[in-house]
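Input sequence (88 aa), recorded before submission:
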Amino acid sequence: MGQVVVKYKVTMDQPEDEMPDYEGIAGLIDNLPEVQMVEIKPLAFGMMFIEVQAVLGEGEGIVDGFEDKIRSLNPLVSQIETLEMGRL
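Predicted structure, C-alpha cell format:
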C-alpha cells in the first residue's frame, strides 16, 4: 500500500455574535499526526477557511476516517472539501 497527499478546505459555521476561533481549531488540526500543513486563508466577507494538507495511507475508509477526526475536533466544523489528492 502506498500513501496519498490530500489537501482539504475546512469551513466553519458562523455563530451570530462572534467569529469562530480559527487559530484554536487550526492548532487542534495541526496536532493530528497525519497533518503536514495548516493555513488559515480568507474566504469572503471576513470569513476564513482552514487549508489542511495531510499524508494518508491508501485503503478503503482511510480518507473518510480522517475527515471524521477533523469533524470531531470542534462542533463548528461544517464542511470539509477535498481540493487536491495525489499519490506519493
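Checked by second reader. The helical segments are 22-30, 62-73.
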